[in-house]
Amino acid sequence: MKKCLLTIIMCISISSLSAQETDRFENKLSDFRYSLYQDIANVAPDSLPSVTDLYQFIYNNPAISEKLKNFMNDNKQEIVAYKTNILKQHESEIKIDTTLYDIEPSILDDFMLFDNDIFSYDLSTIEFILLNPIAVGNLFKTSMNGRKSTQSLAIDALASSITSPKIFARHIDDDLWEVVYDYHWYVMVMEMDLSKGILSTEVKTVYRLKGLPDII
Predict the structure, then answer these.
(1) Beta-carbon neighbour count of residue 194 at 10 Å?
(2) Which of 10, 43, 122, 195 has the fewest CB atoms nearer than 10 Å to its CB?
(3) Which residues neighbour 43 within 8 Å (Cβ) at sequence distance 6 or greater?
(4) Residue 87 has pLDDT above 90, yes or no
(5) Do residues 176 and 90 touch, judged by C-beta distance below 8 A?
(6) At a CB cut-off of 8 Å and minimum separation 6, what does 20 contact?
């Protein structure tokens, strides 16, 4: 009985320590994000980015890029744990009625999550922007709609402002996860290795709701 009680206490202590570590990292991340306001304010006005020119902004402002790179390198283990904790909150049985959808193979054939230009830049900034694995689905969805028309992008922006997707996560092995992003109109199935970075993310399947207007 004493041995069993000791085991329970140890488990509770470990769980609490993990939660405390998570809280500490989230506080560290929040403070770091806040510090970037001043860094951006110090940027010369003529090098501020356009809506679609983030890569060029990174290239023109190595101080910010270096700061993000250092943060990512200094907190590698904490970042993997942070991402894992987020996905564990969405870990559940995947419930998608695929009979309501058509598979969209053309999207996977014609679309890259990142264009080839990204390989000429340090990826730390992109990794930082997509620190939350849920943001990866949002990026793919928005980029996909942006390829259609400005109206499709406007509809996507409206939907993103007032709706919320359902996220299902399944742990496969080690740091490899399957994540399903259910945006009702579209359902995207991705695999990502949390320890290998954003370029390990693979879009496995994209479903499109049957009867959906072409503009969406």
Answers:
(1) 20
(2) 10
(3) 61, 64
(4) yes
(5) no
(6) none
